[in-house]
Structure formats: structure tokens, C-alpha cells
Amino acid sequence: MDKDEAPAPPDDAPAGSDAPPDGDAPAGAAPRPGEGPVEAFVSGAAYAALGLLGGIAGLLGSFAQDWSPAGVPVVAAVLVALVFAMVRLSGWGMGGRLGATIPAIVWGVVVFALSLQRPEGDLVVSANLSGYLYIIGGMAAAVLGVMRVPAAGPPGQWLLGRAARNRP
Predict the structure, then answer these.
(1) I need a labelling partner for 163 at 20 to 30 A (CA). Which of 7, 65, 116, 130 fits?
(2) What pLDDT, in 10s, does the model give residues 8-36?
(3) DSSP string, 83-147
(4) Which phi and psi angles does 145 have, rounded to 5°?
(5) Does the model's pTM come out above 0.85?
(6) What backbone torsions phi and psi does residue 36 show, to the nearest 5 degrees?
(7) Is residue 22 within 8 Å of residue 13, measured between CB atoms?
(8) CA separation (Å) from 31 to 24, 37, 46, 161?
(9) Please, is 83 exposed, middle or buried when counting C-beta atoms within 10 Å of its C-beta (0-12, 13-18, 19+)?
């Protein structure tokens, strides 16, 4: 074999691939795109921003949900639609269900905390039609929004772990 020729891939490797059969990078090789410390920091900052977005949406929505013209909870219904849009677009933007789940969970925690009665008797989300529509409808919209986001990996990857990532 000449020194200009590359070694042949193993028999079980895909055609045109110089990677080892187990999918691990050779020692001393550069990390794959999207696996470096800068990418990890940027991803973590993006998830933190989505959590902040969910918290702000829960805080502002909790104070605005009771505005209803003539007793009809129109604002609460609009806020439920906005929760769905926030969750769905967050998941779409991050490319997976984790991006949708983080703002949904933070939104739910903030809304439930603001619906609890304080020792003085004050609460933000009251026990009326618009409050129930906002809490229950918002949780249903958040769950539906997370379910509408396609999974980032192949089905069963969470169960099989690393074995599923090595499949073509």
C-alpha cells in the first residue's frame, strides 16, 4: 500500500466511511460539530433563556388572565393559545422536545405558585372561570405543544442509550 492511500474501512463499516465500527472518534481527533464546550455553553444559555421566557409568560399571564369583558374569559383563552404557541415554537426552535418542555414546566410552576393563597388571603389567580381556564387550559396547551414537537432522536433512543446512536 502506498503512503498516499488511505487504509480500507473495516468490513462492517458503511461504505465511504473511515470511522471505526463502534462510532467512537479515534484518540486525539477533533470533536464532532456541536460537541465542543462553546456549543454546550450556547445550548445551556438558550435553555436558560427559554426557562426565563416561560417564567415571564406565567407571571404576566397570571396577572392578566382575569381581564374579561362582560364576564367572558376571552383574555384567558387568548393566553392559553399563547402558551401553546410559546411551547410549540420553543421546541421547534431548539429542535427537540426538551426545548418545549423547559418553558412549559417553568410556566406551570410560576402559575401554580401564583394560584396559592397567601396567609393574608391574597392570591393572583383566583378560583373563578377565567382562573380555571387559564390553569387547566394552559397545562393542556403546554402538554399538547410538547407532544406536537418531533423527537430529536430516533424512536427508542432514550431506552437503548448509546446503542441507538450508532445505527445508521
Answers:
(1) 7
(2) 555 554 554 454 444 455 555 555 555 67
(3) HHHHHHHHHHHHTSHHHHHHHHHHHHHHHHHHHSPPTTS--SS-SSHHHHIIIIIHHHHHHHHHH
(4) -65, -40
(5) no
(6) -85, 175
(7) no
(8) 10, 10, 21, 20
(9) buried
